[in-house]
């Protein structure tokens, strides 16, 4: 049992509810990977009732298992970017990313990224955390980004992502009037070349499924709620373009009119998933940003 009040970002605490081996509990109850067990043994980072024990040790009901998390912080330059942090616990931070900001530093964007802002945030909270992103958004897409505070949280959340256990919803504004109130696009997405940024619909690609629902029909435009079943690069942008309703402001796949909006009108507005440690259901929503509100008003 995970007692929420006992959890810390640098220690995972679990009170055994049964008699079993330590290895069984670490793998089956705490969802650690097999690979991580050898590291725990090497670093002597797993304690039972305050004493280091090997994975083969028999655990009794009521024993306290503690796994120490010792990590070096990534070498991101801290910057106070006034990020909107909408949730923070011992395993994860949820950020509402504004448009025009990169999630992770690259050669062309090595400062003013979400990673720089989160580094500043965790230093001010006196935490020693290695930042790991569970999901990423394009620079010009706004919305919810999950930052894991440890390898354990990252492993479990990433697994839930790949197993489609995370419910991801977006709001977008597309060109033209979408006739059907609901629809599903099931078309494989393919990267045509090693250096290609643009993705295409191609039978050689990965299975990609996008569900959409009409929220409002405007003047030659439609506001859609998008629910992703898979999470391919540029999936929403490629699929909307494929059905003839490119996202307004999308330079690569959609319809560009800088008098309307100067970026793609796409916002990751809702995420639902289980907390990686306690398994409680977490639900987050981020209000659509001002530029998309103004676009809707212009198109009305």
UniProtKB/TrEMBL annotation:
Q: Which GO terms describe its biological process?
A: enzyme-directed rRNA pseudouridine synthesis
EC no. given is 5.4.99.-
Q: Which UniProt keywords apply?
A: Isomerase, RNA-binding
Q: Which reaction does it catalyse?
A: a uridine in RNA = a pseudouridine in RNA
Active site per UniProt: 138
InterPro entries found in the cross-reference section? PsdUridine_synth_cat_dom_sf, PsdUridine_synth_RluA-like_CS, PsdUridine_synth_RluC/D, PsdUridine_synth_RsuA/RluA, RluA_PseudoU_synthase
Q: Where is the Pseudouridine synthase RsuA/RluA-like domain?
A: 91-242
What are the recorded GO MF terms, alphabetically? catalytic activity, acting on RNA; pseudouridine synthase activity; RNA binding
Report which residue ranges the record marks as coiled coil: none
| Entry's transmembrane regions | none
Q: Give the protein family.
A: Belongs to the pseudouridine synthase RluA family.
Name of the protein this chain belongs to: Pseudouridine synthase
Organism, by scientific name, is Paraclostridium benzoelyticum
